[in-house]
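Recall that a protein's primary structure is simply its ordered list of amino acids. Everything else, from secondary elements to tertiary packing, is in principle encoded there. The following example makes that idea concrete.
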Amino acid sequence: MTLIKKNVCHDSVYINAAKIFQGIHNKKPKDRALVRYGDDSVSPMLTLKDEYSQRLSYELAFSALKYQDLLEEILLDSHVYPCHSIPDELTSLLLVMLYDLQDREFEAREISDEEEPIAEVREIENFLCRFRIKLAAALARCRIKYDALSIEYFLPETIRKHEQRASALPLCAWINTLKTSLQDVFRDLKSKGFTEVESVSDIKGYTYCLDQHCHDVLFFPSSLKDELLSLDLFADCRLLLQDKSRSLAVHSVQALLNTDDDDDVIVAHLGSHLTIAHMSALRNHSTSTVFVCGVKTSAKAAELGDLFSHMGCKNIQLLHEDFTEIEPKDPRLHNAKVILLIPQCSGLSFSNPIDFILTEHGDAGLLKDLYQGSVSKDKLCILAERQLNELMHAMKFQVQSIVYCTSSVYPEENEQVVQKALEFGVKGKNLKPFRLIPPVLPACSNPESCTDSFFKIEPSEISSGCFLAVIARETDSSKNVSTKDILSHAAAKGLLDSILGKSKEEEKQEKVTQRGSDTAHTRIEPKAAEVPHREAVSNRKAAVVVSKVESKRKKKPTNQPRDHVQLKKPTINTVSDAGVSKMPKHTSVVKVHRKQTQARKPRAECKEMVALKIVEIVFPPVISPYGHPQGNQPRMPAHISLLQSRQRNRSLRGREPPPPVSKVVKPTVLRNSQSGL
């Protein structure tokens, strides 16, 4: 981050500002154009290495645009213009330097000896200095004429309010967890005298607050920008200034992925390197890679490599192709699961247009659109068509989700682009269609606000505007979506809290399993036991499942081989016919508890949740103790079903009952009218 310097303006800054202004100035009809600006051809801008010079160039050009009518009137009223010694091609440079001259209160500029002079700049500067008294008098007459206390009163009302809102906008910064932790930043800020407050509306003085949507985003008062940039936290890239809208985008991507999985992310546009670094920091705890498209030159790749290295990023891979040039089945991207698409847009919801242009590589035409308060229909159609093509190209990739984010206030670039893409769809044999889902923001303080199909923030005094949409493939949960994906998405929305709480209560109910013991006559002696109410509720649901299993068994032939699922540690013993014959007709599952005391396991061993599965219970062979001699008693085959066993028991009911067996207690069966138990 670069600390903004003051009262420094080099010749190269004037040249670049003039070239920017030449491309965005207001063109008047020829019959009313008293000041001529030459042709519309703009030569390439000079390369400016430091951020301050780039920012100052755009600020001068934007100021010349806002005060173009006033500056032209000053030149005409002072009779300085027209001047035959100044060609029309230098008129843009004349207005830019005139604005800077009046901003310095018509004082001479300090020129550094190390600065390389540019002839055109020195010529215009000498010309203005010769007539600066006339120019100052003309400005005074204009202020008197329009009753303006300062030149800001010459601005349109909409522009004036926009600038007031932008100047008071809180500073937004995200914590770089690649180089520090949230707790360390909080302690460092506290040692510097900062105090945490509840909301953005409460920040004033040395205070800050946490964002309601993103857990690693902080807000500071705008008046502390210079002091904040001088702190070690910003100098070491532990805190990074960036608009909140981009943090919302990367957090929406992170919410769609598992924290510790190796799912890759595709960033479709280079945009701001801060957005890519933030995405890298959120994916640092996994083995995934963040692919960035559109890094055209090796010089740009080397520059970005240095920036990412300074920020601690190690999981970023740069691709030189544009996103639309990459094939959907590119083997490099086979593991990609989410695409982050932040296309070029009108950007009118961004409070600071110069920040947007510098950080997002935006078009300087945004300055003119902002001054006019709208975007031309032709330009809007071109942008919307390009955004639609990029979104539809993203839908061709075998990814699970796409996050679409803009800084536009126009539905043509937001909702309509997404809806058209979903309407047209992408046809493919192995590609399932996409559908619109609500964006997931885990740290959202108001989950109800995240249930809409789109997430929108209108420009205000506390935040820039933002549009966010998430589309995901319609997947077959049994094939394409893993359990981890489902649980992580549910946990992000807070849907597992009540389930986890219920599981802790159920852990208090210990499960007592039936264990058989070998006796002299190899019989099971059932004991009476109490059936807990919670087990009764679960048996109601189990009865329906078992009845469906039985209906399927009836359709299958008895001689068909069948795989059985056996219980753990089964004890295969014979069951007396007396006990079987008196069981209810529709009883499918009965839990029998013995009175004999068994050593209970400590509760600490039962903390782990057990996943419930539907199993098919196969009873052991049943040997009747009467009706046949013991030696030639026919045994039931091992694969006999429960239904066949019941039919056999019915045929034995008419026979003479066996002698009473001592210490046999009838099992207690919980009946339910709905389930038939």
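The radius of gyration is 38 Å. Residues 11-155 form one domain.
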